[in-house]
Automatic annotation (TrEMBL):
InterPro entries: CPA1_transporter. PANTHER family: CATION_H+ EXCHANGER DOMAIN-CONTAINING PROTEIN (PTHR31102:SF1), PTHR31102. GO terms for biological process: inorganic cation transmembrane transport. Keywords: Membrane, Transmembrane, Transmembrane helix. This is (apollo) hypothetical protein. The keyword Transmembrane helix applies. The chain crosses the membrane at residues 42-61, 96-115, 155-177, 183-201, 221-244, 250-271, 377-397, 445-464. Belongs to the monovalent cation:proton antiporter 1 (CPA1) transporter (TC 2.A.36) family.
Length: 480
């Protein structure tokens, strides 16, 4: 009976997929006419404008004049909208990721006194508990656990070794060149070493697999990059809670040893539960599946932060969504091509400009930062060189051109960095307990990471986009 239900669900999903494919094909045909394209785009943005205006009106009616056009809360909306619009325009003109324009929007907003998120630390901290659930959940829905099982050595080596080396090098450089305490150095390193494969995945997907089927580039980059991300989120949360927790030393050491394992265990339990809940014959199975993993991830992140186990939920979200996607695939949903993936992509498209714009407002431009930025550039060159050399070494079974391609994709730093870097500042402001030196370390950490985002993201994107076809297609012709 259970098998019949799964077959029925699979058939329904296949029919829905075919209908969606036909709609996409028909839409593609229509878009060949430039007038139709302009009309569709106009209606699309008009719809978004109406929804945005109604949302603002709802907030104004509910919370009063602070949400008026001249109220203090209205600035939050304006900066987010400008970041979104400038990102679209920037991408259209340069093909570079829109997050760069959003980050610059936030920097300029702070510089001209329009918005300073340091005045809203509670709101910023609340949002930064939502961002990781969406971006980590979005990425892990594309993981192929069978691929990870069959290629675990390469995935683990590529995801762990460059990350570990870069964390250590960053901690040493920040300690001896900038005077960071060791804990602050490793806190910086745990963020700094995260690779943002989401920036280059669209380009990687164009290359697919090798003709001899020996390598699946999107899965290698996605799963190894996810492992890298899980380490960053987990270890950062571990160090962060250790630094800012008032618990006893024994408890903090105990928690440090169990954080990652607890995250994996929670993710496995919740992901396997998604196999049974909701029932595949439920009329609202699609909506309930999305809510099951999304609300579960949000609760886990808020709850673990409240009890001082930061970092556990990030790992749990990665494992949970990957496990759930595996079970859903057996019932007809394709990996990364299903309603859950679409929902997460829509949510992230709304969160991305907000995240980078608000992060940019923490970046203070003044004369005292010159030495830090110059030293930071040297640290970036050292750390990036070390990371890429390690990356090339661990790709033992790839050709030289393929190693260069992997190195190109391993350059960008952006998403995890933007999510995590202001948390120390927010925490010190909310608790009002930090010393002058601690706030200086938090500010310097922020500046170093923003600098790394602005430099590495366009370089990694352009190299992957332009060198990728040459590096891989040359190899493909040799294997044909």
């Amino acid at each position: 009976m259970h098998q019949q239900e799964e077959v029925k669900t699979s058939q329904e999903s296949t029919r829905n997929a075919n209908v969606q494919k036909d709609l996409i094909q028909n839409d593609h045909v229509k878009k060949k006419n430039w007038r139709t394209t302009i009309k569709i785009d106009f209606v699309h943005y008009l719809t978004l404008g109406i929804i945005g205006t109604l949302t603002w009106g709802l907030l104004w009616c509910s919370f009063g004049n602070e949400w008026r056009w001249d109220g203090q809360w209205f600035r939050l909306i304006v900066v987010a909208l400008v970041a979104w619009g400038s990102g679209l325009l920037f991408q259209e003109l340069t093909t570079l990721p829109p997050l760069l324009a959003a980050l610059l929007t936030g920097i300029f907003a702070r510089q001209f006194g329009i918005l300073d998120m340091r005045l809203y630390p509670e709101i910023d901290l609340f949002l930064r508990k939502i961002y990781p659930v969406i971006i980590l959940g979005k990425g892990s829905l594309a993981w192929d656990l069978n691929y990870m099982k069959n290629n675990w050595r390469q995935v683990a080596a590529l995801g762990c070794l460059p990350w570990t080396i870069e964390v250590v090098v960053t901690a040493f450089c920040s300690h001896y060149l900038l005077g960071f305490p060791w804990l602050w150095g490793f806190l910086l390193g745990s963020i700094y070493a995260s690779v943002s494969c989401a920036v280059v995945i669209p380009q990687v997907q164009q290359h697919g697999t090798k003709p001899d089927r020996t390598q699946n580039w999107p899965q290698l980059i996605c799963t190894a990059g996810g492992t890298d991300t899980a380490l960053s989120v987990g270890v950062y949360g571990l160090i962060f809670s250790f630094m800012f927790s008032n618990a006893s030393d024994l408890y903090r050491y105990f928690k440090a040893g169990l954080t990652l394992f607890a995250g994996v265990a929670l993710g496995v339990i919740w992901g396997n539960l998604a196999k049974f809940v909701p029932n595949s014959c439920d009329g609202y199975v699609t909506e309930l599946r999305i809510l099951f993993v999304l609300v579960g991830g949000l609760f886990a992140n808020f709850f673990t932060s409240a009890v001082g186990w930061s970092g556990t939920a990030g790992v749990a979200v990665l494992v949970c969504n990957a496990t759930a996607a595996k079970h859903w695939a057996r019932k007809g949903w394709k990996l990364n091509q299903n309603p859950a993936s679409t929902a997460y992509r829509v949510l992230w498209s709304a969160c991305e400009p907000v995240l980078f714009a608000y992060t940019g407002t923490f970046f203070v431009i003044d004369s005292s930062m010159t030495d830090t930025m110059i030293m930071g550039l040297g640290i970036l060159i050292i750390c990036l060189t070390t990371r890429l050399l390690t990356t090339a070494l661990v790709c033992w079974n790839l050709s030289i051109k393929e190693k260069l391609f992997i190195c190109c994709t391993w350059i960008p730093k952006s998403i995890v960095e933007a999510v995590l870097c202001p948390l120390a500042i927010d925490t010190l402001l909310i608790n009002n307990s930090g010393t002058q030196y601690e706030m200086k370390y938090a500010d310097d950490l922020m500046r170093l990471i923003v600098q790394a985002i602005l430099i590495t993201t366009p370089i990694g994107f352009l190299l992957t986009n332009h060198l990728g076809p040459f590096l891989l297609k040359s190899e493909e012709r040799e294997n044909i």
